[in-house]
Amino acid sequence: MADHGSKESERFTLAVSETEIRALYERYGQVLYARCLSILKNPEDAGDAVQDTFAKVITRWGSFQGQSSPLTWMYSIATNLCLNRLRNRKGRAQKREQHKEMLVGDGSSAPGAGAWEVTDTVRTLLADEDPETQAIVIHLFFDDMTREATAKAVGVSVPTLRKRLRAFMERARVHVESGAIPMAAIGGLIVLILVLQ
Amino acid sequence: MTDLFAVNEGQRPSRVDLAQQATGELSASPSAELEAFKAEIAAVQGMPAFDWETLSKRAVQLEQEEERAKVASEAEPAPLPWYKRWQLWAPALAFAVVLIGLVPLLTPPDGPSTRLKGDTELRFLVDGPEGFTSGTAGQVLRPGDRIQFTYRAPLQQSIVLLGVDGTGSSAQYWPEEGDIPLNIPSENGLQLLSGSLELDSAPGPEVFVAVFGAGSVSEALEMVNEAYEAGGHPAVQALQDQPGVSTLRVEKVP
Fold first, then answer.
1. Structural domain of residue B57, as residue ranges?
2. What pLDDT is attached to residue A4?
3. Spatial CB neighbours of A162, under 8 Å, sequence gap ≥ 6
4. H helices of A4-157, where?
């Protein structure tokens, strides 16, 4: 344990030294960044999420008791941070949408317009889901885990997981049909719903 | 993210497994998947360089933000959970009590929705403009219709209510989650299953199956899935011939 005190940080204990955190960063940073990028799609957001993950590791390393591997522990921190960013991003997008009549030129374009795909639907809807469904979707889609492994990781039965997923995909279908996504994505979503059932 | 349309059925390692192998957390023999994963990770551009000063400052900042949020949440007590707010549940409870009293009046004793087999019985009510009315077996319903189940199961102590929709997909309705069947009062007479169900948009028949006294939800679900695989919806309906099982079929149109 190391205490790297500055005036601002005197009240907070940094639980890991620079050397230790550098070693963790070099070993896990790139993998974490790639995962955050796959969830967030935006390199800047992904970079910030990784930085925040390691910032949290700095203060919480002492509480990491080795119940899981360092990677899965950091994955869970990064997942929460990514979900926060998706929520914030959605809030910003809604604000832009509310004020789009005040914008000029192509400023009214929704972010990512024209580049919608199935994964965008997943990202958009994730922000509003309950934590359990969020975890299911992240493990299944972004971590490519099996249904069984996902159910175990989240602590639900496989039938419950299927039910949650079906409800999530139903919301995705409604989202698509409401016109939020161009027709190109609809076919993909229908295939996905059928596969998941 | 891997191919969205190819759900991992266990035929390949997950990306978490691969990440653990790539970082040396798990030992692994060389494989095409691992090599492809390593190459993919190495090709990802934009990873911020390590900067201790930035990280340690950010660590302190995040701690301060969390502390402020904690203080703010302590200063403002959280709202009572829904079940402690009697204004919310008391009217629903009163409505349920009235409904239970009305059920025998709403449903003729030998009406078309009655399906008696052995000692158990499953019926349903449909929420319409005039409130809940008795449903009939085979009734045509629409997506979004709300139905509520009633049952008669003297001497039984638990229920699992499942459904198989038009696509053949099975779902667990009661208990809502978990593997333990829902406890029910061991009483004679028609009982109302608490809560209602909103029908989804899968068209075609939906067969609801009430399994009384099942050992577990997964056991009941397995029985239903096996029946469907063996003979589709008719086979699921035929489960009513088994003791302690009642089924009910409705038709859903878009």
1. 1-76
2. 39
3. A147, A196, A197, B169, B171
4. 18-40, 43-60, 70-98, 118-126, 131-137, 147-154
Give me the number of domains chain B comprises: 2
* Judgement on whether residues B47 and B153 belong to the same structural domain of the protein: no
Q: Which of A27, A143, A144 to mutate to test the interface with B (most CBs of B within 10 A)?
A: A144
pLDDT tens readout for residues A111-154: 333 333 556 777 777 877 888 888 888 898 889 899 899 988 88
Query: Is the ipTM reported for this complex over the cut 0.85?
Result: no
Verify that B245 and B174 share a domain, yes or no: yes
CB B174 within 8 A of CB B195: yes
- CA-to-CA dists, residue A55 to A31, A62, A123, B74, angstroms: 16, 13, 24, 25
Distances (CA, A) of B163 to A65, B44, B168, B188, B233: 43, 45, 9, 25, 10
Query: Touching check for A73 and chain B: CB below 8 Å?
Result: no
**Is B142 domain-assigned?**
yes
Instruction: State the smallest CA–CA distance between residue B112 and chain A in angstroms.
Output: 31
Both tokens of A68, joined, read 């899981």
